[in-house]
Design goal:
The chain is built from 15 helices and 15 strands. It is α+β, with helices and mostly antiparallel strands. The chain folds into 4 domains: 108 residues, Immunoglobulin-like (Sandwich), CATH 2.60.40; 84 residues; 128 residues; 124 residues, Glutaredoxin (3-Layer(aba) Sandwich), CATH 3.40.30. A 7-stranded mixed β-sheet has the order 10-9-13-12-11-14-15. Helix 5 packs parallel to helix 7 and helix 9 packs antiparallel against helix 10. The chain is elongated.
């Protein structure tokens, strides 16, 4: 009875200001050996929580401000330890009590956070049941029972797991519907699993990942920018990127462009999704970049009405650099002076295959590449690949000094008229850049990596 009186007294003082502007969150905690309590908010740009309010620790403390808390995900921290997370959907119900008693948490005055607590408890129960079923499946799999008996038991466990998963998804849909319009609903929908594809999809990796890519954003609400104030938006973008990573660039294009079109309902989410995908699949330094996909993204974005003029200018420029010198294209000719002092051009170089190594002699990464390629000399010779290093900047003396240490097994040149750079002949977004060419100077592989070169040399 006494505990309920405490709630009433504390909440009565809180409710006296219900009509006031701003937020007021009362926190009741056990006696803890700490100095301060914090409210921390999730920052989408920083991808982490940061402190927005701090008060001296008391067992009954009140955070308050004349301003409202922006919608999003928050936590109450005791020094560095998280005590509880809570949601803010709008300017309503920003005056409430959180009672934290070790393993028990109680919200008074916030229906959404009360529903979220109940939802989290129920989801943990589902996960515990599924974990036990998984352990049971493993035990049966490892048992000494006959194969037939094993199969019967494992099939039964799989059926039970499917039932639990279906119940879990039905419960998630129910809670989302009950909290429609609130941040909680958008969070639940964003984390709901994609229904399993038809059984035959599991035998075809490409078909399977196409299915996941097509349905990844089915329940994600791009129009709800409150999700950006939680980790869920970034997590969803990451999940989608991991799926796209499993597809060939040409197969991925339709799903990436579809996702970008869906995101147009929110300019912020649209640009954030594009930036995330660009970082993974367009950045020249990304080990998983997919150039055909990135070119399709650039063509989409420069024709989009949802892109501001400054970003469009950048993407037009990027497209002009990247959309050239593809596999199957003949590389533009250029002049250079050789390490022997002769003036010649690319097309005059006779080689069954040519590894064109565009570099700066002092570039640390270029030095690493030179050492790595030097180790492949025997394999290069077996494949009849000639290495030609080209310096394309204006410091003549830098190149001449380089020739003192240059690999004698390779050809070396300086693009003395600087036509490569001035005429933008070749896509060189970073150095070093390697092109593998055939005898006619047709591109076999653009921007080949050391790993790809090694793989090529190992092929029969």
């Amino acid at each position: 009875m006494k505990k309920h009186i405490v709630y009433i007294v504390l909440f009565a003082s809180l409710s006296g200001t219900l009509n006031a502007q701003g937020f007021r969150i009362a926190v009741r905690t056990p006696d803890l050996p700490i100095d301060s309590l914090f409210i921390r908010a999730y920052s989408h740009s920083k991808k982490q929580f940061h402190s927005v309010y701090e008060i001296k620790y008391e067992q009954q403390a009140v955070f308050a401000d004349k301003k409202f808390l922006p919608p999003g995900l928050y936590s109450i921290n005791a020094d560095t330890n998280i005590l509880i997370e809570f949601l803010i959907s709008d300017n309503n119900q920003q005056q409430f009590l959180i009672d934290i008693q070790y393993d028990t948490v109680f919200f008074q005055g916030s229906d959404e956070n009360t529903a979220n607590l109940q939802y989290q408890r129920r989801m943990r129960e589902y996960e515990q049941i599924l974990m036990r079923l998984g352990e049971k499946f493993y035990q049966v799999q490892q048992s000494d029972k006959s194969l037939d008996n094993k199969q019967v038991e494992m099939d039964f466990i799989i059926q039970q797991s499917e039932i639990i998963n279906r119940q879990k998804m039905e419960y998630q849909a129910q809670v989302a519907e009950e909290n429609k319009g609130k941040l909680l609903a958008s969070i639940i929908l964003s984390v709901m699993e994609t229904p399993s594809p038809p059984e035959e999809y599991y035998n075809d990796k490409t078909l399977y990942y196409k299915y996941l890519a097509e349905h990844c954003f089915d329940k994600y609400d791009f129009s709800d920018n409150r999700l950006l104030a939680t980790p869920l938006a970034n997590n969803k973008f990451h999940t989608f990127s991991q799926i796209i990573l499993e597809l060939e660039a040409e197969d991925a294009i339709v799903y990436v462009l579809d996702a970008l079109r869906k995101s147009q309902v929110s300019p912020q989410q649209h640009s954030d999704l594009f930036d995330y995908l660009e970082h993974n699949f367009g950045d020249i330094k990304s080990p998983v970049r997919k150039e055909p996909l990135y070119i399709a993204m650039l063509n989409y974005i420069v024709s989009s009405n949802y892109t501001d003029i400054y970003r469009k200018e950048r993407y037009f420029h990027e497209l002009g650099i990247i959309d050239k010198n593809h596999a199957g294209d003949r590389l533009p000719n250029f002049n250079f002076v050789t390490n022997k002092g002769d003036t010649t051009n690319l097309y005059a170089v006779e080689a069954e295959r040519l590894l064109l190594f565009l570099q700066n002699p002092n570039c640390p990464t270029c030095k690493k590449f030179r050492e790595a390629i030097k180790e492949m000399q025997a394999a290069l010779s077996n494949k009849k690949i000639t290495v030609l290093t080209i310096y394309f900047e204006e410091d003549k003396y830098l190149w001449q000094n380089y020739l003192q240490i240059a690999n004698p097994n390779w050809k070396h040149g300086w693009n003395y008229d600087l036509s490569i750079d001035r005429k933008n002949l070749i896509d060189i977004r970073s150095i070093p850049t390697l092109y593998l060419l055939d005898a006619n100077k047709t591109v076999l592989k653009k921007d080949i990596t050391i790993e790809e070169l090694e793989e090529f040399l190992l092929k029969p």
